[in-house]
Write a structure and sequence with these properties.
With 343 residues, the protein is of the alpha/beta class. The chain has 13 helices and 16 strands. The protein folds into two domains: 157 residues, Rossmann fold (3-Layer(aba) Sandwich), CATH 3.40.50.10740; 175 residues, LD-carboxypeptidase A C-terminal domain-like (Glucose Oxidase, domain 1, 3-Layer(bba) Sandwich).
């Protein structure tokens, strides 16, 4: 299965429609066209930050349209953001999402974590780990090789067979202006998957995402209605649905301070999730900020839990990024530094 047409949606931030990213968008569209892929921006995807912020119903409409349109075989998120939960009423109040979904590729990360939970709720398998602006529109002369390898596997085969660690990681780009075009990011050697505790080989279907977004489901510091809306529409899987699964967690570009990270892990612990999952996969923190602190917190908080804990996966907010299938049987083998997916 080769992807022929990609529908790009802005489900979170509307930055894609702003003038200051025009040069990035142009690079991304040209790259996709080189693969022979037709690119369709859904009607509101390019309306800009203010419009997108004020109109969650339009964002929801775009997602529904992308599922309804049979010519679109892959839905690609523009970027993350911070208020995707606001789509909930427009997708679930009258079963709007359930009525139109069909299995097609859906790819996004960061605050798109909410959309992954929404689609999981209606039985759709999704892919976590990359987005249009963050990855396809990379300002260097080509996409980051490790990132590109997984993106190409997905668009050419419709699946991801296995994930291995990247040999290198990058210091994140600070200048996204036109001056950054053709400029490579600084790279450093990468350590590979680290087994912090538990069995080196374990299995289960993977689900999860950005811990900052997941935390909003339990805490309304950022927005006063996240907890009530997420509860009303039952967006976070019940404990029995987590049984035997593998939880993926990664931290955002906000680089939560260790005490906040401890709080985030504490909320999930209270929920009981660490008592039922077989293992936890944790993404590399951006620029390796708080690398050791997060590790110590995870080990301390989960010391009494019978699960495998694997750290430093190349997913989420640190570059380069792999792509992780959700809802597919996975076997994690830290000894051989591989995560395999069995469909």
């Amino acid at each position: 299965m080769k992807v022929k047409k990609i529908g790009i949606v802005s489900l979170s931030s509307g930055v894609l429609g702003e003038d200051f990213v025009k040069h990035e968008v142009k690079i991304g569209v040209e790259r996709l066209k080189q693969y022979g892929i037709e690119v369709d921006f859904l009607p509101h995807a390019l309306k800009g930050m203010d419009f997108i912020k004020e109109h969650p119903e339009c964002r929801a409409m775009d997602l529904l349209s992308a599922f309804k349109d049979d010519s679109i075989d892959m839905i690609l998120c523009a970027i993350g953001g911070d208020d995707t939960y606001r789509l909930l009423p427009y997708l679930f109040e009258n079963n709007e999402l359930a009525n139109v979904v069909k299995q097609k590729i859906f790819l996004g990360f960061s605050d798109t974590t909410f959309n992954h939970f929404m689609l999981n709720k209606v039985g759709i398998k999704t892919f976590y780990g990359q987005s249009f602006l963050s990855d396809i529109c990379e300002l260097a002369n080509e996409m980051l090789p490790y990132t590109r390898k997984y993106f190409e596997e997905l668009i050419f085969t419709g699946r991801i067979k296995e994930i291995r660690p990247s040999d290198i990681h990058y210091k994140e780009r600070e200048d996204f202006s036109e001056n950054g075009i053709g400029v490579d990011m600084e790279s450093y050697p990468n350590k590979g998957f680290e087994l912090l505790k538990g069995e080196a080989v374990f299995g289960g279907k993977i689900l999860g995402g950005c811990i900052d977004s997941i935390y909003d489901i339990f805490d309304n510091t950022r927005y006063e209605d996240t907890v009530s809306l997420c509860k009303k529409y039952d967006i976070f899987p019940k404990l029995e649905e987590w049984k035997g699964k593998i939880l993926l967690l990664e931290t955002s570009e906000e680089k939560p301070e260790p005490e906040l990270f401890r709080k985030m892990i504490g909320h999930l612990k209270q929920y009981g999730i660490f008592d039922v999952v077989t293992g936890v996969l944790v993404g590399k923190p951006q620029n390796e900020i708080y690398y050791d602190e997060y590790k110590d917190i995870l080990l301390g908080e989960l010391s009494d839990k019978d699960l495998s804990l694997v750290y430093n996966i190349n997913i989420g907010h640190a570059t380069p990024r792999c792509i992780m299938p959700f809802g597919v049987d996975a076997e994690v083998d830290v000894k051989n530094q591989v995560i395999r997916f069995i469909e």
